[in-house]
Amino acid sequence: RTAFSAEQISTLESSFQRQQYLGAAERRQLAGRMRLSEVQIKTWFQNRRMKLKRQL
Questions:
Q1: Cβ contact 38:31 at 8 Å
Q2: Predicted pLDDT of residue 7
Q3: Which of 4, 10, 24, 51 is the 20 to 30 A CA-CA neighbour of 33?
Q4: What is its main location (predicted)?
Q5: Cβ atoms within 10 Å of 2's Cβ, excluding its own
Q6: What are the structural domain ranges in the chain?
Q7: For residues 31 and 37, is the Cβ–Cβ distance under 8 A?
Q8: pLDDT bucket at 43, cuts 50 / 70 / 90
Q9: Which pTM was predicted?
Q10: Contact between 45 and 20 (Cβ < 8 Å)
């Protein structure tokens, strides 16, 4: 389990607002920029989409 910093969450959220589904290239770029693994990025986006779905 990963504990994301407030800064990381902010970056992930702004990225999610622009695009709810990341392609492999965007995921790789974001992971490199944030020093997280691609799997962590992918999982965060999956969980965030589920959170959005629950809120509707």
A1: yes
A2: 97
A3: 51
A4: nucleus
A5: 10
A6: 6-55
A7: yes
A8: very high
A9: 0.91
A10: yes
**Percent of the chain that is helix, strand, coil (3-state, to 5):** 75, 0, 25
The amino acid at residue 8 is Q
pLDDT single digits (tens) 13-29: 999 999 999 999 999 99
CB-CB neighbours of 21 under 10 Å? 10
Which residue has 């999982």 as its token pair?
43
Identify the band that residue 56 occupies on the pLDDT scale cut at 50, 70 and 90: confident
CATH topology of domain 6-55: Arc Repressor Mutant, subunit A (1.10.10)
Residues in CB range of 13: below 8 A, 6 or more apart? 48
